[in-house]
Amino acid sequence: MQLLQLKAIGVICMVFSSYTQHRSYLVDETLNLVRKLQFSKNAIRTYHLADEEQKQIQMITALLVHLVQFSANVPDSLKGTVNWSTIIDASVDANYPINCHEAATEACCLFWTNVLQRFTAAKSQDVPEAKGIIENLVQDLLTVLNLPEYPAAAPILEVLCVLLLQNAGLKSKDTSARCFAIDLLGGIASRLKRDSVICSKEKLWILQELTDAENDSSKILKNKCCVCLGGRGINMACDVCGRCFHPDCMGAGSQENLQRDSVCPLCFCKQQLSVLQSYYELENKEKGKRASTAHKKKTAIPDEVTAVDTVQQILLNYLQEAGPQDDGNLFSRWFYLCMWYKEDISSQEKIIYYLARLKSKEILRDSGSGLALSRDWAKKICLALGQKNSFSRGFDKILSLLLASLRENSPVIRAKALRAVSSIVEADPEVLGDKRVQSAVEGRFCDSAISVREAALELVGRHIASHPDVGLKYIEKVAERIKDTGVSVRKRAIKIIRDLCASNPNADTSHAFVEIISRVNDEESSVQDLVCKTFYELWFDEPSGSHKHLVADGSSVPMEIATKTEQIVDMLRKMPNHQPLITIIKRSLTLEFLPQSSKAAGINSSMMTSLRKRCELICRRLLERILQVEEGADNETKIHTLPYVLVLQAFCIVDPTLCTPVTDPSQFVVTLQPYLKNKVDSKSTAQLLESIIFVIDAVIPLIRKPPQTVVEELEQDLKQMIVRHSFLTVVHACIKCLSALSNAAGRGPRLLEYLVNLFYKHLSGPNSDGQVLGRSLFCLGLLLRYGYKLLAASENQLDFPKILELLKRRYLRRDDFSLKVRAMQALGYILIAKPDFMLQKDILNLIEASLSSDVDYRLKIQGLQNLYEYLRDAESQLTADSTGKPTVPYATNGGSEVPVAAGAGDTNICGGIIQLYWNSILERSLDMNDQVRHAALKIVEIVLRQGLVHPITCVPHLIALETDPVEGNSKLAHHLLMNMNEKYPSFFESRLGDGLQMSFRFFETIVSNHNVVATNMKSNPIAFVKPGISRIYRLIRANRNSRNKFVHSIVRKFISDSRSYPTIGFLVYCVEVLASLPFTSPDEPLYLVYDINRVIQIRAGAIEANLKNWTSMDQQQDVVGQQDIVGQQDVVGQQYMVDNVMHEPGGYPDQNLADSPQKMLNNSCSTSDVDMAKLQEDCHDAIAMQLLLKLKRHLKMVYSLTDARCQAFSLKDPPKPGEAISKQNIPLNINNTNISLPSCLQDVALVYQDFKTLLREDSMDYVLYTSAT
To answer: Are 398 and 189 in contact (CB under 8 A)?
Structure first.
């Protein structure tokens, strides 16, 4: 069967070549065969490729390739045996080879045009079949591409690419056709790039002729095989160029006539072409042409044979010798010559020369033969020559249009184009370095679709490790994606930078580190864990291999540790604070980021030991660098030293024992103590001093016997700074450190008592200097906060009531507001030391007064700050107790505890204290001032974390704060609500309705008056509420019952009870909220419409009847009024008055009667028998129903909901998973709704008319609705 098919292909090709007028018919018949092919990827491939093991293609593809090759018809004079005379006598036009190439191109166009037309015209059910057929054809053509026997594969694919780049593909209006074109072009372009990479790496000795600019014979290796570069066993050499070969390398090991003096294929073909050139020149001379023409002909032919011509001739000779001696072989060689002829700019002047090359073996029968050429070499030569044809040169055009497709509006096309570019990058990652590719890929980093952004990052990330130099070009844009809204995008960006840093440790990646560490508190826990794991692997994980090389400056720290330390410091220089670094160190030391499975299996103790040792070495290196920077810097030493000190402080905050080496525990204190003598008064110096004092404060209690000289110097330095330093943050740190020093060194409270008495004298004396008094209040409060236990244990008993009385009597009632706030701060410090004072009535009144709504915002902030610091200290005490670290209370025996608030850990009264002030704190969380709200919200956060109050009490306030115009407040409120919903979903859901009402009050009092957004809110006020409400809805959207309860709780607000009814403004707010909910499935708006219908079905009838009664009452009064007016007109006409004429109170008998109807109207409005409260209640209900009806109409338009679909909705039917929802951007319009309550009976008619109109316009048949439900 296969033999018959092969013979049939041969016959068809001969007919195709001989009868040009029948070519279109044969192409049509071929297309008919194409439609009968299998379209699966496993299509039957029975055409065996010559000398290619396990490579087969479809018979139809083989027929197509042969038809194209036979369309370039060989001149009849060259089909038989020829010699030079035959070539000379052949009357072949100079354009004939070009015409042959054009004929082949025309055949390709005819075939592909019909195939693509049938694809675009195919029915939807036939499209997959058509795609499969085309894909199989392209796959076969790529299989035979660059095989010596099939030169037509490249032109066929080239024509296909040209058509796909035009209206048949990328410019088509059909999205599916464009996507398919992108798939095909991506596969073809990736193959072109892969072949280009292979060719560039190829070291075949024959191809060196193409790459060497100059044919330098000195480059030829002597006494070494040109193939394997080996030197032994050489017994073959070229007699012309001297190249040496192994017989096995040349594939001549079995030849019997091996001789050392042979000719290599390069030299043999050069000789052939040289002889042909000489024949051609001689022929020109013999014809006796004119000298100028002869000169022109001679200069057209190079004096020396070019390297390209030589390699081309090697391929032709291989085909002539190794291929079957049939017509197919001849047409293949002729097809090659036609392609090369077209590419040669001077080819038309050398037509005879090209014709002679086709059968050079026959013309030069006596020239002998060169060494044999293997098939593998022939394929490599074909691949190299293929890089110079027009098909390969079209790669840039394909790539450019694929990159342009990345900017298409359709996300489907962008995703397809990105996959196509990815396949090209897979072939050669260096493509990512192209500026065009970089710009296009970075543009997709900001794509609107998360999947596209992630795919773009994945494209770059796959090649970071293998090509770090390319990755560095993308690192800035990748770092920006760390803040992406998509979790998967953020995680992929972090992994890319981690891989890049691991593969290129010397790169400057501090900016990227800053972006990564900014996500350490990400709302997604998996991102937090990835961030911590990333820095653990980069800094704290023990690297593989030996890294014992020490720093050259005499340090005992390994070079690898020193490098990591500098990376940390460089990152910190670009950070606003070191709090994220503290979190990283803390979680790394405890390995919190490890998965639960690893924690359950147990953490290796050796791993923890190695981790702590690395952290200790980092701290030691930081101390060394502090000294080195000081010695080598100028007057700005402290500014340069500051980053190292801040990093050291971060380690010390997490674990102070890292700064107490076993060999010398006091090393860090002794080294850092001299820096306290710095007298420079600047912000950077103050920050430096504060950090150094913190490290000393944390380390001193851990030293069993600190050096007395150091202790004495520390006391004097701290005392001087407490009294004189201008930065209060430094003073605060000094007082805390002095208290710890007095306790740990066993020095007693002597110095503390001296300072307390000093500042008390300032406060109780006649001093009127505000700065001195403010400083004294600040210092006195801190001394009592941190030194309370030492002072209380002293022989000189501390008189706390006396100090409190001084504050209350003299400073908390002063007119000087700054001193009043400072006194409030001092009171807060004292209450942290003695929290039981907060239960006393006078202190309770003071704190309540500071939290009242009518006091200055600064006093509110200070009162809230006092409570916040008390709670923080209580929490730190509880944390220390639970972890077993005695870091809070003092030890009277000079132990090693770190002093924090005395009494702060008394949890028995902590909850009681907070509950006393809880209502005031919640009220301040909705304060007009942004800072006050933030301070109150921080207290709510810590109270909920400690569980001091029932969480349900603050749900409405947190819901209201979701709409806060300050982003930080709204985010924190959302975070707290999210945690509460996870732990207590029932509490959360039960207060959603109350929260909405409170958010409305907050919206009216805060958002509408906010300075920042007031001007924008006039046009669209709900825009500032929508994000917060949407976030709340997303929390419960996953659960159908929860979201239905939420929606129902809002709709229920439109039903007033007998006791009270919500304001119309609140109902309008609810309608706006319901219209702005982010629905994602049809089930959600359908339920809302269902709930609205249920309310209308229950309430509309009664409301309409009530309004009708009010209207009829108004009409009756109008009739009575008209009769009275007529009576008055009759009396006036008869010139007399009667006593029973009804006058408006205060009226005059002789007033104008034209005013009587209006007077009667006024009279009816003030009629005593009309119950205005009941009238307004009924009108309120009618307006509420109108708002619901307008909301329902809006939902039906926006979500394209038909009446039948709304009526068919049932809660019993489960939602259809994956059902798409269509949404139109139509704004809710309720501006034309009359939402004002009537002030008299006549206004009811307007409300009644509007209500009846909306009910009539609503097409729902509530009789059917009632029966359906």
So the answer is: yes
